[in-house]
Amino acid sequence: MKNEGIEGTERFLSPGKGRGLRAVRHFSVGELVFACPAYSYVLTVNERGAHCEHCFTRRDDLFKCGKCKQAYYCNVDCQRGDWSMHKPECLAMCAYGENWCPSETVRLVARIIMKQKVTTERTPSERLLLLREFEAHLDKMDSEKDELNQADLAALHHFYSKHISNIPDEQSLTELFAQVNCNGFTIEDEELSHLGSAVFPDVALMNHSCNPNVIVTYKGTVAEVRAVQEINPGDEIFDSYIDLLYPTEDRKERLLDSYFFTCQCTECTTKSKDKAKMEIRKLSSPPEPGEIQSMVRYAKNVIEEFRRAKHYKTPSELLEMCELSQEKMGAIFADTNVYMLHMMYQAMGVCLYMQDWDGAMSYGEKIIQPYSVHYPAYSLNVASMYLKLGRLYLGLERKTQGVKALKKALAIMEVTHGKDHHYVAEVKREIEDQK
Question: Which GO BP terms, alphabetically (predicted)?
Fold first, then answer.
């Protein structure tokens, strides 16, 4: 396939950022800028049985692979379509049984290797950027990242060496893992639940901004890029690589750690939202700057501790951890402070897992208004929170509040996902069912 480009856009050299994507025509808010099929992708293990391994369709009547009995498909066509990618994994799962446990990144890289074996021409996902052009940033990786990379490389050999012939040499694999870690995407559903991992080369061409003018959503295994601000000819097209909830210094740390650059976007230079994001509780004696910095350090530590604890603590222990951290931070931080909101969000997730609907609703009600202030106008985080709240309200027979929340989610989703998206149709049906 020859390089046909993407209509309405062009690849260019962005000052200070390297290559990027810019518009050559006007795009209105909500307009599809471009769609990009995944070069390669993998369904997360936790969603097996709920989503088709090949097209990611969510349905109840999937049937499973007769060999490994772990991969599920819509029909024979989906199973055949996935077989060239699923085959080495299927054989490995059968061989290792319960001991089969490669990371999602390892599974994705294995599929990329298989794809590269059978693909000689530019693919429809590489109209402007080839996968082999991905930055690896190997020279910027610290020892911890290098160790993780080497562990993944060892796992690939361990689980797949007997089932994939001619695995690339160690240097090529090291570079490929680094490329995927820096350029990979997580596919999420309408409530931002993790569905899988993928590489979308043309989407990876876009540079980052903390005030993005496009947003990336998913229709099955296709990434769709839509304008969330007016875009004029000559404007660079920016998406966001990270969660935009946090204050400037936190965002900069995350970007430097994961993507190896220091963000200089207008949001980072003006820090216009930092005061609201770091709201301090009104006290008779205001805290000293040192006390605030100490609490920020505590918040960052507890966020990381919670991320690790999810793998070994019980839901009730996790909930207690959330509550204790909120109590401590609440001595200085207001409820609208983003670090308080982070722990409330985690607590809401635990409540949902425990089917404590009232507890989840209580947290959601505290979160939604500050989210609407801290996030950009068309935010997936805000839409998903309205969606979760709306569905909780309806489940608790609070119909009026449920419909109101779903309509607010729908107003955002019609811009971010497009009016013809199946998630939008589902929300519309939920609203209609209440009439």
Answer: methylation
